[in-house]
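Budget justification note: compute hours in this period were largely spent on complex prediction jobs such as the one shown. Inputs:
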Amino acid sequence: SAVISQKPSRDICQRGTSLTIQCQVDSQVTMMFWYRQQPGQSLTLIATANQGSEATYESGFVIDKFPISRPNLTFSTLTVSNMSPEDSSIYLCSARWETQYFGPGTRLLVL
Amino acid sequence: DAKTTQPNSMESNEEEPVHLPCNHSTISGTDYIHWYRQLPSQGPEYVIHGLTSNVNNRMASLAIAEDRKSSTLILHRATLRDAAVYYCILRGTGGANSKLTFGKGITLSVRP
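Corresponding output:
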């Protein structure tokens, strides 16, 4: 199975600041995804980040708030911008080869 | 998007088989049935997937109804480590239909 790592694993941030989450995969992949999991809820897809194209955002998510980079086939970043307490969630990176795998998540608390 | 319906929760006893049901009456002919599970404080983990025929792997079995409108994930001998939220997800083969869209899942509790 694939290995997906995320940094940081958790963080506590002040409102109005931004946090960039890094996602590293252990083998090249075209399709990567970012999800959000709010407390006690299921996962919600934020965007699809395919290498070589602009990220595609789902309804309710915008690039200004969640800019994504995909510089190569093994790395992606998600930035949570101008944070508010409502952004407190787990953010998960995912990648699809034949099967789709998920990272361990980044637990974000915004005060 | 084709939707799935799962019970909210289920309890089982350790070392007994567990059957987790999923209804997907609006499934299309090209939708694969995927199961993922999420252990506490972890990201989702792939369990199994299938199209029409029943599937077996080292983790579980997937039984798919002949009309494909329902399926059952079978854990042959539940362990305490199998306590998790199990998600039944339909995934198509291209474009927007190929996204993994998570529902609420079913929370499985395993009693020692």
